[in-house]
Amino acid sequence: MSETASTIAEMVTRNGRSRPDYPAIIASDLAMSWSALADDAERIAALLATRGMQGKAIALLGGNGLWTYRAQFGVLRAGATLVPLSPMLRADALATMLADCGAALLLASTAHLELAIEAGRRAGIEVIGEGPDFEVAIARECATAPWPDAGSRFGIIYSSGTTGKPKGIVHSHAARMAMAQATAKDLRFPDNGRALILTPPHSNGTLICLLPAVLVGGALVLAERFDPRQIITLIGRQRVTHAFMVPTMLQQIVDVLPAGSNELDSIQTLVSAGAPLAPPLKARLVAMFGDRFAELWGLTEGVASLIRGSEMVVRPDSVGRPLSGTALRIAGDEPTGEIIGRSPYLMTGYQGRADEGWADEAGERWLRTGDIGEIDEAGYLRLRGRMKDMIISGGLNIYPQDIEAELCRHPAVRDAAVVGVPDPHWGETPIGFVETSQAVEMEVLLQWANERLARHQKLRRILAVDRFPRNALGKPLKDELKASHVDR
To answer: Any idea where the AMP-binding enzyme C-terminal domain is (predicted)?
Structure first.
């Protein structure tokens, strides 16, 4: 291990020495100290090393339980490539990902062991599950696994698949360390910070607060399921300082938080990411938390921007300025276009598709984000939507996010999604889907919206949907909405 920690695995060991008795992980009524976690990671790594796993891909199927994170840190200490997978997937989909990343082993928590065994059978790989046999095996280990190199693979995160076949996004240990440093700085993470870990392990968003907590030797407070009242109580009881939630979670939190409650007073930074914030919800969060509230726009691939509450008051349509280390620009010569970026925490590439996703700008390699936006003179970014979602009607570009934001200003609309459908005259025309919080006639809502939209943005119709299909981070799956309600 180097004198200066260059990997998250080294930080776990350093925390075990410098903060041995401070809690590293808090799960329900259990707490694991940094010294215990560091020792545990060494033993798991030794077990994996005896199986020749250094440098190989190890998949992990688990929820937000203590065992899952013990296994994660053990895999990282072993110098293997961590591949967390979603237990929401079917066995055949998991087997496809296992084959894609070349996984040599699948680790699984008790709750997902049956699914893991079936996926492992299909992929032809060994499965090791949580339980007494695992504990006995690591208890016997006393060897020391080689340390991973900073340039080696940290892990592979599979995309949500909202834009087609999921891609494996590869990051190095150095990239994840750089992300930890950037988020610790910009999220203002204190040495005794406590991060709420609420989103699943296979989501890159989970690392927004997890990595800086490890960097500073803080604590991870695990929540295995989302219940807004229970989460509020957990934050208050454990004095959580930092939390990342998606907008659908935040909406439920503010809906049930009692007036005058002080249970969220410990929060120093509450981050929203994963999907756009509806303007009314954003306004409520800014009113409640002020500068303690932040919105982060970013890609798993490794570029991001951040805006805090005080800035939102002045620039309500912006997602902020680049996160520390990120450089953003608009491709081409027009003020509105595809956002491209680069950073020290950028991915190495896509698994098996190293040349995809890059733009060459003046001989430099930049990440193509697929998002359309504008950057003002002060460096603030405004999103206009995804390139694939852009609607071209009568030769004019329509950005669904602009229409969605307008729909969400109606008091009866909780969330909105807009897609383009074929039109014999215009080529394409927009239609809207809404989740409502109170009764409203769709014809009345359509008239209300079209009175406020530009002529080329006007909606053909609006359809009410009880519940949007969403990915793990709460982002509406527009292709599924369109297929279920339009393409029939």
So the answer is: 403-475
Task: Judge whether 412 and 420 are in contact, CB under 8 Å.
Answer: no
Backbone angles phi, psi at 394, to 5 degrees: 60, 30
Residue 243: inside a domain: yes
Q: Among 248, 275, 302, where does a domain finish?
A: 275
Q: Which three-class secondary structure state does DSSP give residue 327? A: strand
Query: 129 in a domain, yes or no?
Result: yes
Residues 350-370 have pLDDT tens digits of: 999 878 889 887 778 899 999
Query: Three-class SS of residue 433?
Result: strand
**CATH number for the domain harbouring residue 463:** 3.30.300.30
Q: What's the structural domain count of the chain?
A: 2
SS3 call for 373: strand
**Domain finish residue from 223, 249, 275:** 275
The secondary structure of 328-367 as a DSSP string is EEESSSSSSEEEEEE-TT--SEETTBTTTTEEEETTEEEE
DSSP state of 220: E
Write out pLDDT tens, residues 274-332: 888 888 999 999 999 999 999 999 999 999 999 999 999 999 999 999 999 999 999 98
Beta pairing partners, 60: 84, 107
Q: Nearest CA to 438 among 255, 284, 316?
A: 255
Average of pLDDT values for 412-439? 92
Q: What is the pLDDT of residues 177-196, one digit of tens each?
A: 999 999 999 999 999 999 99
Among 138, 152, 143, smallest CA distance to 76 is for 152
- CATH number of the domain residue 124 falls in: 3.40.50.12780
Domain that holds residue 461: 391-485
Asked if 278 and 248 touch (Cβ cutoff 8 Å), the reply is no
Which residues lie below 8 Å from residue 478, measured CB to CB, with a gap of 6+?
Answer: 162, 389, 417, 419
- For residue 244, list its beta bridge partners: 271
Mean pLDDT for 119-137 is 95
Is 123 inside a domain boundary? yes
Rounded CA-CA distance 320/43 in Å is: 43
CA distance 374 to 169: 26
State the pLDDT at residue 304.
Answer: 98
pLDDT given for residue 479 in this prediction: 87
Q: Is 16 helix (H, G, I), strand (E, B) or coil?
A: helix
Cβ–Cβ under 8 Å, residues 40 and 74: yes
Cβ atoms < 10 Å from Cβ of 412 = 17
Same domain as 270, residue 404 = no
In this prediction the pTM is 0.88
